[in-house]
Write a structure and sequence with these properties.
The protein has 159 residues and is mainly α. A 3-stranded mixed beta sheet has the order 1-3-2. A hairpin with a 2-residue loop joins strand 2 and strand 3. Helix 3 crosses helix 5, helix 5 crosses helix 6 and helix 5 crosses helix 8. The longest helix has 15 residues. The termini are far apart.
Amino acid sequence: MSSSDPADAVLRVGDIGFDGPRQLLIGFGLTLIEVADGEAIPGSYWGDTEAGIIGTTVYARTDTPVHSLLHEACHLIVLPAEKRALVHTDATDSIEEEDATCYLQIVLGGQLPSVGSARIMEDMDRWGYTYRLGSTRAWFEQDAMEARAFLVERGLPTG
């Protein structure tokens, strides 16, 4: 019996294409740039297949996980506009911003018809996100009040 890494089963940008995510991000004043397969992703904090951010631009390849593209984009979305221009690779100033980013990536996943919030939460678990209630869904539904309040305070979507 062979074992496989659950992270291998996450939805990739190549599975859904760039058009849907690109249109979604335009609505938040962001640009999505497709990076050629095999090329390094500019502004990627973790490297490898993870999305990158520089200013108001999100970078991804076809093998980039959709949850990663959304996560990095949401880092920019939760920031005030004047701070976005200064971002290169690492956008998090606080736990509150990180939590709001995770919450918003789930919400925005729900705005991509070929994805959905449930799939984003499953993929976050597959990738190794950890929450004290044991799963992303449990956190989102039962323990993310502060993240939701952060988004509401800034006029960002929460559902």
